């Protein structure tokens, strides 16, 4: 947003703070504007301290079934009118932990770059019919052609 719209870090961080972005598998550290102890600059530089922060914040999905991020994600999904999955892998472990099958039918639209029509159909049927994976549709195309921002 800073580069595209010429906005400052403070203004962009205030906007981003309003959007619930959940990192189910952790993160490679927080960004400085997030004002967390594990913050690091957004650079490609790697050293021992950066690696320590990255490792500390990565979560293996199979390890913690009482994870607060998954609980928040389940609540947000349950409360949502519309859900768009951008770059989501649709793995059964993640979709089961998110209780996807219990959501309203046809609630979720998602990207499907690299997936065949059969794979998209298999994902839909295997996840209770609540995920409509858009065959060969990337993030921008899904947001332009499918997303409803009204």
DSSP strand (E) fraction?
A: 5-15%
The total of beta strands comes to: 3
Q: Which strand order spans the largest sheet, edge to edge or round the barrel?
A: 1-2-3
Count of separate structural domains: 2
Helix percent reads 25-40%
| Shape call | globular
Overall mean pLDDT? 86
Overall radius of gyration: 17 Å
Order of helices and strands: HHHHEHEHEH
In words, what does this structure look like?
This protein is mainly alpha-helical and 150 residues long. It has two domains: 2-57, no CATH class; 81-145, no CATH class. It is built from seven helices and three strands, in the order H-H-H-H-E-H-E-H-E-H. The protein has helices spanning 2-5, 9-16, 48-57, 68-79, 92-97, 117-126, 139-145, and strands at residues 83-85, 108-112, 131-135. A three-stranded parallel beta sheet has the order 1-2-3. Strand 2, helix 6 and strand 3 (131-135) form a beta-alpha-beta unit. The two termini are 22 Å apart. The relative contact order is 0.11. The mean pLDDT is 86.
Give structural attributes.
150 residues, mainly alpha, 2 domains, 3-stranded parallel beta sheet, 7 helices, 3 strands, globular
Q: Summary?
A:
The protein is mainly alpha-helical and 150 residues long. The protein has two domains: 2-57, no CATH class; 81-145, no CATH class. The protein contains seven helices and three strands; from the N terminus they run H-H-H-H-E-H-E-H-E-H.
Could you outline the blueprint of secondary structure elements for this entry?
Elements: H1 2-5, H2 9-16, H3 48-57, H4 68-79, E1 83-85, H5 92-97, E2 108-112, H6 117-126, E3 131-135, H7 139-145
Parallel strand pairs: 1-2, 2-3
